[in-house]
Write a structure and sequence with these properties.
209 residues; Rossmann fold; alpha/beta
Length: 209
């Protein structure tokens, strides 16, 4: 089934800059969005047309560039701590002609998020998976009414669903445990209308009431 969907997504001609960014990411082991998650993100951004976007986890600037090109009136606020990623993202934002709409915070998101103020129309959570549950209350407070929180990789290769079968020594136990806590809190929060989608590596979509 995944091969079928991939064939369909591949029918649309890809922008050469994004082809090169994806090739670089795959060659160097940089995690970026899978094709179906990417298409979902593009669709939501085009529908929502958010004025202000907050992104946790810039990486090479792939998803950030994608969002800004889908919504020319949007401004992106993005957080990254890896110096090499920051350098690559800065260049990619420039190559895609969106650098004038980007504010890049350099540092650990755990130290930055709780100090941030202001409200955002759309938040894309794609940073360290162990921290999702810690980020949640801060992201909730910064999200506008009817704003959307999109959390990527929430099923973590199927390990979150299979958590009861994992031993504590398993390499995925820690991350899966924290993601499970995140999903429990997210789905139980009555201030959100949330759905978990089996797209890519698992996507949670939440609208703030």
């Amino acid at each position: 089934m995944k091969d079928f969907f991939k064939r369909l997504y591949d029918l649309k001609p890809a922008d050469e800059n994004f082809v090169q960014m994806r090739a670089f990411a795959e060659k160097h082991g940089v995690p970026i969005m899978l094709a179906d998650s990417e298409q979902l993100l593009k669709t939501i951004i085009r529908i929502k047309k958010p004025a202000k976007i907050l992104e946790i986890g810039t990486a090479i600037g792939y998803s950030g560039s994608l969002m800004l090109l889908c919504s020319p009136q949007s401004r992106l606020y993005t957080i990254e701590m890896d110096e090499q990623m920051i350098e690559l993202a800065t260049q990619n934002f420039k190559n895609n002609g969106v650098d004038d709409r980007v504010t890049l915070f350099k540092g650990d998101a755990r130290e930055i998020v709780h100090k941030m103020t202001g409200e955002y129309d759309f938040i894309f959570l794609d940073g360290p998976k162990r921290q999702y549950v810690d980020f949640l209350p801060y992201l909730k407070s910064m999200l506008k009414k009817d704003g959307i929180l999109m959390s990527d990789n929430v099923l973590f290769h199927g390990f979150v669903e299979g958590l009861p079968r994992l031993t504590r020594k398993h390499r995925a136990f820690g991350i899966s445990t924290h993601l499970n806590m995140f999903l429990d809190q997210l789905m139980a929060d009555d201030d959100f209308e949330s759905v978990i989608l089996e797209i890519g590596d698992g996507v949670a979509l939440s609208v703030k009431k």
